[in-house]
Amino acid sequence: MKAPRACPQCRETKRKCIRPGPGEPCRSCQQRNLQCGSQLRRLTPSISRPVSSEEHPIQPHGQGEHRSPIDLPWDTTAELVEIYLNKVHDQPHSIFHPPTLRMQLRNGSLYGAMLCAICAIGAKFSSNPDRRNLEARLTTEAKRLLQAELENVCLANIQTCILVATLSAGNCQTSSEALFVRIATGMAEIINIESVTKNGRIIESETARRVWWSLYVADRWCFAGLGLPRRMEDLGGRCGLPMDEMAFRSLSPDQTTLIPPWKPGIWAYLIQLARLFGPIQDLNRRVATGDADTAELDQDVDVLGQQIETWRETLPPDIQFTIQNLQGQQHNQLGGPFIALHLAYHHYSTLLYFRFLEDKNPSSSYVTRCKHHASSFSSLLQLSRQVQGCEVSYPTIGHMAAVSSSVLLHTMLFGDQTELPTARRELSANFEALVELQQYWPATKATINRLMTFQNICLLSTESHKLDGWMVRFLLEHSLALQKRELPFVPPSVEVEEENMTSIAREWMERGRYMDFSRE
Q1: Gene3D superfamilies, per this entry (predicted)?
Q2: Range of the domain at 97
Q3: Whole-structure pTM value
Q4: Is the residue at 496 inside a domain?
């Protein structure tokens, strides 16, 4: 016999029982102000089902009795959630209203898979070795619980898919990352997330909006990394842009109208910038395949370059990058997202002008711009590591640092002698950041190996920065392994073996134009 799907109240009155999501009170009981029986039939925390990410507050459980899905002590769970919010949230994704997330943690209403995934990310950054060791078990449990509930199409499962995708990206499981991003995107379309952003309480609608745009950003990064086409190109304009983060955090649970005037936040400006990322990717692929003539490509570069600079120039005064603004965002606990926004600006600009590095005219304005943005990226990344509360620690930062480093290598090998001290210092800073990032995200090791492979090619060929198919894979397809590169070597007869490479590297080092990353 099948278990009854309707709640006891609806079965008794023979009403249609409709629930917004698993474990939530049905609409009939809500309308009649009844305590819904379906809400009371809770499973044990270890297998709790997903509920709406913005569930109405309920009476908090006593903290002394609280246990997370794998029976972690309350203080451990709370600490790991806070680490996640401070270190990762609002950077690669923005999918929660932090006060609501904390409230759900206190009252025990967080979906088990979601809580495991949040704690797994938090565990990566814990200073306590025992808590860091929890990460693998938490990740496995998050995936198990999520996979058991994949047919429950709801916002909580979309959020959990994004969290698991983040874990997969940093743990060298890029196929899983793409799979969970696609599942989340499909769920968002099925529940018509656009309608959620236009109805109900502001917290619920704004959270749904941020989830949608987080998927939009992931679509541009995740699938480019695997050399796959973007899927949200025609869907990205369906939701309004996210509001100011401080205004969002200050919303009360049942608020239905926005009291202060609406204004965009850091994530809104990040999305505006991300809209240019796709065309920049497409432009580089066209260069590599030779699908357009030089004049046409240069015109497209000018258009995109103007759009990026217009974006920067029209940022409001408090979002422009200054040390004073950084201190203000740090005070608001938004230092990391603020840094991430401006790192993205420099990264996209570096990619836009990268193909001009093979230009024989080093004074070209495009070459100057490319070097400027690569250098600025490195300086900003180093600053983020020096200012507490401004760290950027998500997986793709490693790839961005490698792209910056590839331009700095060009300066080291082919630049003017006066440029070498700065390039060497910035290369060293990038490498230090990569080594630090590797402590949290194992995938960074592959990024470091890619960078070392690229440097070896630079030692052997004057065409190392030519934007061909191999270079596109290095710059964009960060989740795919590098293949052998066919380039004219100098001298042509040299065999690329370890002994020869050591000799060549020593020669360049004597000129002050080589960095041995293995010794850094």
Answers
A1: Zn(2)-C6 fungal-type DNA-binding domain
A2: 45-249
A3: 0.84
A4: yes
